[in-house]
């Protein structure tokens, strides 16, 4: 039996645009993902999040699913454009009521809400009027939106996450253009990341000054990072792997935990990497109460000079010519339906890397999971591969805890199958199967497995 610490947080995670639907209901404004998904050619099969899981109309049913499983925590995101349809101005009471009801329903079932304030669905008006995250006035606009959330929900929400995966917003949204707003550039990702870090720190600052003492919650940020394993033992490849990690995670975590971007980025990105003012630096340093981590896969890193043509087009590479890193996978590693390699030991190595570089922070895995081509057969989904994946990753997590890593929680991505961004409904990450015709939720075998794990605090 593999046991976890007594107070370990077990949860599942979702995001507003991926599950809510009701894109034109409840006084909601449009977001950049509404616009992007409605642009021909951007999403596989022309799918959109217009309806998706219809969670907006099914919060009682969905919370009942979680309660039935014995989930201790649930991570969801707030759609900014439900609270402020044009991104700023007067709050929309229906939007506030929706999240307020969801939070009350969770608490009534003793499920602790973990709330992400930004999971990529920027109000479209802010994109059209201000160029979104490129604009240096965005941090104050984000701060004002988050203050409304703290004010409205902070009496009941004690776990806040400002941003989900700024790396994805910057690289996939502004570098490769495969995610909203679909821009392609070699400098904009660095500018966007810069404003997001500033926005994060402004939100944390307002929370700490005006709400935290009274509301007694914690606030942090969630970054995504894959592990980078040196392809060979050579000094060059080991440096390449370290460089790749600094460009991936250090880009966002170094300013927060060490006060500035990694030196290797400053050297290589030079003039395209913006500089923090002293005031920015002071606000950003120490601005996360916990280390939120989304982790999915591992790749080999080798030294290479210049452009890396083999880079996975759905992400992972960053702006590769800035790094001189060649990424590859092992033919022997099994892959999920995303093409992401299953390398459980990479998770443990990454936890150690974070622990060392950032001085032993409390870490929360806010996402981990996998997509498989699940089939509903006689009312059942036999997803043994997902159970294998989860057991293997959780086994490494448990080992990391034994080795002294302060890992406090684990959120499985995802509660249910949903809109997988540019891949639409072609990928299923859920532990509940969603019949897209009827919206019916059917627990997969992994849901039963996870429920038992939570009950036993181990497996
Ligand atoms: C995360 N990549 O996204 C998100 O937080 C979720 O919304 C998403 O559904 C989940 O992981 C599964 O994809 C990512 O290409 C999307 O490196 C793409 C990448 C990483 C994370």
Quickly count the helices: 16
Report, as a whole number of angstroms, the end-to-end distance: 6 Å
Low-confidence stretches: none
CATH H level, superfamily name = Glycosidases
What characteristic shape results from the CA principal axes?
globular
Tell me the count of domains. Answer: 1
Q: On the 0-100 scale, what is the average pLDDT?
A: 96
Strand coverage percent = 5-15%
Number of strands: 13
What's the alpha carbon Rg, rounded to whole Å?
Answer: 21 Å
CATH architect. name: Alpha-Beta Barrel
Strand order of the largest sheet: 1-2-3-4-5-7-10-11
* Helix/strand structural class: alpha/beta
The unique ligands bound to this protein are: 4-nitrophenyl beta-D-glucopyranoside
Q: In the CATH hierarchy, what is the class?
A: Alpha Beta
Helix residue percentage: 40-55%
List the secondary-structure elements in sequence, H or E.
EHHHEHHEHHEHHEEHHHEEHEHEHEEEH
CATH topology: TIM Barrel
């Amino acid at each position: 039996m593999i046991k976890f610490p007594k107070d370990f947080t077990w949860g599942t995670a979702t995001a507003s645009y991926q599950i809510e639907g009701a894109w034109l209901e409840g006084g909601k404004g449009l977001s950049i993902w509404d616009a992007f998904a409605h642009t021909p050619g951007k999403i596989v099969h022309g799918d959109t999040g217009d309806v998706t899981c219809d969670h907006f109309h099914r919060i009682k049913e969905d919370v009942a699913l979680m309660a039935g499983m014995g989930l201790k925590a649930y991570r969801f995101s707030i759609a900014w454009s439900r609270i402020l349809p044009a991104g700023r101005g007067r709050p929309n009471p229906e939007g506030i009521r929706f999240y307020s009801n969801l939070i009350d329903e969770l608490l009534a079932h003793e499920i602790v809400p973990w709330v992400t304030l930004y999971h990529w669905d920027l109000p479209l008006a802010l994109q059209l009027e201000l160029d979104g995250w490129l604009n240096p006035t965005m941090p104050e606009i984000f701060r004002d939106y988050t203050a409304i959330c703290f004010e409205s929900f902070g009496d009941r929400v004690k776990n806040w996450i400002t941003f989900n995966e700024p790396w994805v917003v910057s690289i996939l949204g502004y570098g490769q253009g495969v995610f909203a707003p679909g821009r392609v550039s070699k400098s904009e990702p660095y500018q966007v990341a810069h404003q997001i870090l500033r926005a994060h720190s402004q939100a944390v600052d307002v929370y700490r000054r005006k709400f935290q003492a009274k509301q007694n919650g914690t606030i942090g940020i969630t970054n995504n990072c894959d592990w980078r394993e040196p392809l060979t033992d050579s000094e060059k490849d080991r440096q390449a792997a370290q460089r790749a990690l600094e460009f991936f995670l250090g880009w966002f975590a170094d300013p927060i935990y060490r006060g500035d971007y990694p030196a290797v980025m400053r050297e290589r990105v030079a003039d395209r990497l913006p500089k923090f003012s002293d005031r920015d630096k002071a606000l950003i340093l120490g601005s996360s109460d916990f280390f939120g981590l989304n982790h999915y896969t591992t790749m080999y890193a080798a030294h290479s000079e210049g452009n890396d043509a083999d880079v996975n087009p759905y992400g992972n590479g960053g702006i590769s010519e800035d790094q001189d890193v060649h990424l590859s996978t092992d033919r022997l590693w099994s892959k999920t339906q995303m093409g992401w390699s299953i390398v459980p030991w990479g998770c443990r190595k990454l936890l150690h890397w974070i622990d060392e570089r950032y001085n032993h922070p409390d870490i929360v895995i806010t996402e981990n999971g996998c997509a498989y081509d699940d089939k509903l057969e006689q009312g059942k989904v036999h997803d043994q591969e997902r159970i294998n994946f989860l057991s293997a990753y959780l086994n490494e997590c448990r080992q990391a805890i034994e080795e002294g890593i302060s890992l406090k929680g684990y959120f499985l991505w995802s509660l249910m199958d949903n809109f997988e961004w540019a891949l639409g409904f072609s990928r299923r990450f859920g532990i509940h199967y969603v019949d897209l015709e009827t919206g019916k939720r059917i627990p997969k075998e992994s849901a039963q497995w996870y429920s038992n794990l939570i009950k036993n605090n181990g497996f």
